[in-house]
User: Fold these one by one.
Assistant:
Number 1:
Amino acid sequence: MTQLSPEDTGLATALKRDGLPPGPAYLQVKRLILNQIQEGLWPEHYRIPSESELVRELGFSRMTINRALRELTADGYLVRMQGVGTFVAEAKGHSALFEVHNIADEITARRHQHRADILRMESVKATSEQAVALGIREGDTLFHSIIVHFENGTPIQIEDRYVNPAVAPDYLQQDFSQETPFVYLTRVAPLTEGEHVVEAVLAEAWEQELLQISANEPCLLIRRRTWSQKNVVTSARLLYPGSRHRLEGHFDQS
């Protein structure tokens, strides 16, 4: 755990520079703390000032400080350890619910290292279910890949993907340890439409082993299909350990 002296917390400097953000008192505290985290001034595992120190430094009531810390903990930004202190949580992977992003870019944006282990690259015959999903005939050839994505050496996603060869004929010749399927497929068949189905599941035994999780760890499963113009490009099954990933969405009804 990282611990700095109170004068090194940066809150006093931030207050002098930017002043208090607008809004209710507890939101002001939340935004101050979030700024410290998002700007990298309070890194992962950094022990933040205690409630008493924050009350003294910021001038807010203990109730206000407590609410801000509770909400930041519930949001996954902080970890509170009874009798030890409150620490900046390790960054948790997240994806936009209504967008399709490159997992390598998401990991890099968190200043972490991405690695991909290629487990399977093969041609298979489409089952009836796969044929319906990809808009082809049962028995037609499909490309199939299974890739495990790692963040700082920890497995965070199993990507089990079927690809329409008519759209991406060179799929099996790619080195996906250097470039993700997302990047390759976006280049050869620009994305025009996507579909997400999200479920909470328990991983199968082989998936538990690959993700290094216990049998009772809940997982997040995203079933994704993408189109380029009128052609279905790919049908993918993306499995994440629930403790290492979350979905985010933004709605604008204006």
Number 2:
Amino acid sequence: MTFSDLVYAGLGVGALAAAVLPRVVFSRPFSMPMVFLAAGAAVQLLPLPVPVVDPVADRLWVEHITEVCVIVSLMGAGLAINRPPGLRSWAGSWRLLGVTMPLTIVVTAVLAWAVLDWPPAAALLLGAVLAPTDPVLAAEVRVGEPTDAEEDEDEVRFTLTSEAGLNDGLAFPFVLAAVALAASAGTGWSAGWIGGWVPSDALGKVAIGAVAGVVVGRLLGWMFFRARAAALRLSEHMEGFVALAATFLSYGVAELLHGYGFLAVFVAACALRAAERSHGYHKVLHEFTEQIERLLTAFLLFLLGGYVAGGGLAALTWQSAAVGLLLLLVVRPVTGWLAQLGSAAGPRERIVTAVFGLRGIGSLYYLAYALGHDDFGGLDRQLWAAVAFTVLASVALHGVTATPVISRLDRLRRKTGPGEPPP
């Protein structure tokens, strides 16, 4: 038996498990990501020649595989959302993006600086990489497949999905702020980087990413549904792999123009969906992206489980673990609740939306990306331990609670209507 034989067998088992597990764990208080994390840890502990993926030594590889996983999930999220974008219809999302995300970054950075005694740049980086949310890791809290009815989406699932679709791109300016601060001041503090960061990273790249997404999405929408040449009207052929073309094209164009590709992918998906909102081709595209996303997520979580079992948390201290738990149990719930004060959502919807801010693959990507530009005072392993622990805790906490909480919320909604208190 060679190692390659073992890899092929493992890949086959993993792919089958990724297909079967969502049905097995449906309506149960655990999730598919929890199973793959546990499987990765278990295999690592067996007497088998299984290498450990070290995100410090293998940083570039980790950066690109997490990058692909994130952009595929963003395309799937944008295609799944039935509600057209708007200031009022997406009010819950704008509140979380405008209030919760920046407050989460600031509070987490202050905790890292005060509790961990990290330099400002590393503290800001920890806050920035842990800001994006990821409902992919708990399917119960995201919207389902595309339908032709806007009212099919309940407020909690819609808000969490749209928030995650946008904050994966809007967290990038803060990651670049940490990189700029590290380059400018090292382990100290300097404000000299802000003058260049605001027009370029905070404003310009956001605008370029959004515009690139709209343009690519509309052009593809015209091509798929309205082109005169039958060969170009791909909606008539119902081939799902075209979703990858839309994903990579929107991402690549935005990045070539020095914009934020994550933002462009989600915006392009929403623009593509708007081209023919009720067309069945969107369901085909979404199903394909969901399958690819599920495989990539399972693979990455398996590797993460192996990394943790192989000593990946050796650099974790009780202080950094405390910061991660405070983020999940206090910072996100409180800032999420504050952002929704005065909103149209009912109190129980506000609570669930505030609590279920999952951390996931996006955090791993951002950390790998940032550490490719600076070592942040030699804190690379401490950063990886803190982020990996927070993702693990989020997967466990939200994976166990998502099914019972969302099921109860659905039952109450059917009895009393959205937002009303139960009898």
Number 3:
Amino acid sequence: MLVATWNINGVKARLDALLAWLAERKPDVACLQEIKSVDEGFPRAEIEALGYHVETHGQKGFNGVALLSRTPPLDKLTERGLPGDEADVQSRFIEGVYAMPSRSGAHGGDRLRVACLYLPNGNPLGTDKFTYKLDWMRRLEDHARLRLAQEVPFLLAGDFNIIPQPDDARHPSAWVNDALFQPESRAAWRRLVNLGLTDAVRATTDKDGVYTFWDYQAGAWQKNNGIRIDHLLLSPEAAARLASVGIDSHVRGWEKPSDHVPVIAQFH
């Protein structure tokens, strides 16, 4: 079973790339962030033509998340919006439950809960945007604690807008005044992981130069001036079934690319 996350940076602008990647990689569940589309404007017909079920939590012009899956979610009610603040109207969270292959190899009673998230950027520092970022992370921590207590395979997938460690950036010094690399942001990340979650990429490699985002400016892609901010965090039950992790960095070189690339985990 393949589960992927990708900040698509505008689903309509990147539709050709998305369709090509879905046909190439064939993920069982794909979590998209920053779709920048209302639900009724999402190009579901083109995606459904490839055999995918579509669930969205959209917003006009910015934000927005989506779950694409080869089979519909098991629960009829897909959860939209991160719990904990009814006044939060930003579309940044969607969660569904999907069938996993049973240990014998046939689809059976095993389930995987997939949460797709687009964490706030938080810039500029010293503004309400940074406060919102930290508040959102506290709510995410509360939600993850609840899900972990249920002891069902569970993962948090998405653009976290956090650089966890200096080796997750080509030039860490360039990010010291950015919300993505602030001590408070990284401390919130550590609190989340320390609940018992596994960073899927770092569970499989400790190499430098492992990035998921390259800015459009200053030839960042050509110079490999990247950062790792797109993550898959796994519950112990999901981590026990992790087979491999990949980053499809080649799609950054496609025509009209997103500035992010997909991160994919395979489960057995």
Number 4:
Amino acid sequence: MTGFLAATEATWPAAARHKAGAFIVPEGKGGGQRVSAATATGPWTEDDIDAAERMQASLGQRPLFLIRQGEDALDAALAARGYRVKDPVNVYDCAIAALTAEPANPMAGFVVWPPLAIMRDLWAEGGIGPERIAVMERAGTPKTAILGRVSDRAAGVAFVAISGETAMLHALHIAPGLRRQGSAVKIMRTAAHWAQDHGAKRFSVLVTEANTAANALYASLAMEIVGQYHYRSK
């Protein structure tokens, strides 16, 4: 799980990271939960939780913590403070060769950076606005965006970046009227081929348990759940 967290921080980075007691509080600037949730760096006390809450308040962020597997004591402490479980997440991973065994369709997926206006429009349609685009732009690792096409129409978009030997896919969105036509799979394969060409050997993605369609997609591509986490919010 620490590997997934390091890869996430590198490929989907916060604007800044602040120390607050035994916690790191990322400064998200509206970029979503992954760049705003506090994480424990070691043994903690109730005073450390207080420090993290004060830091989040100073940044204008709501109280939010990321709970990894094995952090049961922290989970219970936050529950006692009135924090509720939010968005359990599955961490999927596979050898990149599992996705590149089939060639990418050059007419169905295009590697583009920086994103075109149509790609920004597609992301906006999926609730991925300028603040999340800013997260992509901050990533200092090898990165690109993928534009998917179906029947000569822009059908979907995704962002992929590499940390070490792991590529992580983020912000996959398919236009509602063009779903169930294979565009998501083609975007995944295009992203994997690009990542393999840039030295990646593993391919990972994060998805909420509630997103049944995405979970089914990743499972169909022989990706396996290698970890889980959830948030606690007040």
